[in-house]
Amino acid sequence: MRFTALAILAAAAFAASAQEPPTRVGRLAYVEGPVSVYQDPDIGWDKAYVNTPLTSENSIWADRGARAELRVSATAVRLDEGTQLDVSRLDDQALDAQVTSGAVFVRVRYKESDESISISTPQAAFLLERDGAYRIDYDPVRDESRLTVFSGSARMRGESGDVLVPTGRTVHLFGGPEPTYGMEPAAPADAFDRWAQSRDRLWHDNAARTYVSPYMTGYEDLDTYGQWSSDPDYGTVWYPSNLASDWAPYRDGRWSYVQPWGWTWVDDAPWGYAPFHYGRWVQVRNRWAWAPGPRQARPVWAPALVAWIGGANWSVSVSGRNAPAVGWYPLAPWERYQPWFHTGPRYADRVNVAVRDHPPRDWHGSGDEWRHWNRDRAATVVSRDTMVDRRPVQHDRVRVSPDAVRQQPVVAAAALPQVLPQRNELERAHNQNRQPAAAPTVANPPRNPGAAAAPQAQPNAVARPDFQHARAAKPAPAPQSTSAATRPPSPGLAPLPSNPVTRQGNAPQATPAARPPAPPPVEQQRQAQPRDQQQREAQQRDTQQREAQQREAQQRQSQEAQQRQAQEAQQRAATQQQQHQHQQQQPQPQQPQQAQQRPQPHEAPAKEKEKEKEKEKDAKEDKQR
Predict the structure, then answer these.
(1) Residue 266, domain member (yes or no)
(2) What range does the domain containing 40 cover?
(3) Please, are residues 119 and 231 in contact by the beta-carbon 8 Å criterion?
(4) Which of the listed residues 382, 407, 432 is the one where a domain comes to its end?
(5) Of 69, 275, 493, 600, whose CB has the highest number of CB atoms within 10 Å?
(6) What is the pLDDT of residues 287-324, one digit of tens each?
(7) Residues 127 and 264 in one domain
């Protein structure tokens, strides 16, 4: 009975958590060139806009000549051209994404202890453990992966265990479904790395981190595009710079349908993410200010903090005809947010934690009119088709008098399905007015010798992300050292180095097997042979390749030994020459005369005669004295 009760409580807790949407959502922070996102299987790849929210089972594609940046809290994932990034999981504590082609540069800041960041390829998963700068490459044609750690620390996870990749090193995987790997020094930064580092230099957050948590996605742009201030009514507020005179929140952008929340605001301003998914808006001394509320370690994300006005029968005049209308206005600090998607009560309580229910100090009216302050000053009305077609709101805005807005009721959350367009309307409109969007194509990886023929995709077939499929990595035992390899500009990878893996001791250096070319007609005939015979032939080919590799490795080892001997001989000769020159330059010590000039045998009698004459001369002089 006790076990049954515990099981019921656990099931209830799981069901409640399943109803709660993620409280952290990513952001497409930068777009350059043709970039697309994949958010709905029924719509497929669609054009990407700055500030597009991204969550689990979403993908980004940066086409040729394009670049993009994904932000999640204080982590930036930057995509080079020809890169597809599939985000399989993005929630309150984890970011799990896969590079299926191309290269990404990941900058991690202020990582929390319980936060998990995993960027993988089809060959292995790479866990980024600390703040730092990392690069992950994957070439689907060669079936090769690289993780480079410029700073920080990472681990490569595989079936045989985790492998530490320290700062300044690159781990290189190759070899198909059962890859081996080697360690090598990190290659110098290329053009993509320099671009990513230049984006880092634009990251200014000294003031913002004082007032909001880095966990809040989009916080990093606030210092650049506005000023912080303190207000006695609303606490810390942020004023955006360079606004138009008729500017109002939730007016310069478009509505997009993002699961599981439904209608979600996508603002056009480069800073327009955090202020439209957290906090409230209010006018302070006739100036719009964003009030984030008291600083929270993990604030809760919302698709748009607005209230909806109108009803199912509300219509406005558009181009001389009546059209169904939809209206909204930004919530003030005293207004509660009512979610229009399925969620539990805990989410609503957390997103409304900073709501205050009293009028501002500068209010001089009567009654409860202060509660409708934002509705009377910042309501925006468009035709229903503007939302369905996801057109820019500022271009389709319908001018409606404040009195007409006041006559419309605020729509309760339960009645919103009858007021807002539904997903099937969006899908139907998209299929009728489909706009071309850049999309990745399927790359057929090379077939290993002896492997069964896999089904090949049609040429130029559009790739659709597979968030459930992950190929387990089976790396070989870690080598002691590897030779450096230069990395060419993305999206491709450098060819394998001639000796990518150095075994322990004096064993020969192994090289990866050359990838087979496309099968000729003879090979196609062999594919029809019995499977056992194909396997024997494949084993023979593998044996021949290994023997050839060993011979080449031995030849290289012998050549390297000869080169080392020649270099050592040159060094010895150079050392001896320097020592000889040094001895010649030093002064010679004075030696005794007998040692310096040793007489030759034939010179001895002449010298003795001269000595006798000198002695006789000295004797005569002594007598005279």
Answers:
(1) yes
(2) 24-200
(3) no
(4) 432
(5) 275
(6) 999 999 999 999 999 999 999 998 878 888 777 778 88
(7) no
